[in-house]
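Page 47, continued from p. 46.
Same chain as before, 199 aa.
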Amino acid sequence: MYQFIETICYEHGLFRRLDLHNERCNRTRLHFFGLQPDIRIELHLAIPPPLINETVKCTLTYGIDILSIEYVAYKIRPLNSLQIVVDDTINYAFKYADRSGLTKLLEKRGQDDDILIVKNGLLTDISYANIIYLYKNKWYSQQNPLLFGTRLQHYLKEGRITPALLTPEDLPKFTEARIINAMISIEESPVIPVNAIHF
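Result:
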């Protein structure tokens, strides 16, 4: 039985981007399990009282139904450098609970903090986030990431990020890179110098 996850950010007393999480969850369930009554994630969320004033990472595991929800106080971890790894077969179009393919690639990071995956000649994602690049005060993301994160979708709808087909050869034109995911905004992201992305 396939299992999937949604990582939901709770901050300042609110669960963020629930519309996009519901949409992705139910689209995934339809694809793998056929027509099912929609899940409304918000009906299943309840922050434990000790975490009520924290930024919390809520990890919801589901198949046809919700299987578990975990709540953990969240801090952004340091990220200073990336190792480019190539894998033309990796598939993470759905947010699988099984991350073994990504974990195996992560073992190739060497002395760097994380990896930047190249698939079919295109820059995609790091192991746990989408990545964006700054050029002349404008942010760009890969048009075809491994996974369309909910925050990336949100920024694309707002017009804050422009999608493009990006290759490793494009990296020198950018002044910096940052990561975004459910828990990390553009403003909160560690700044990654382009010369700290290693081939």
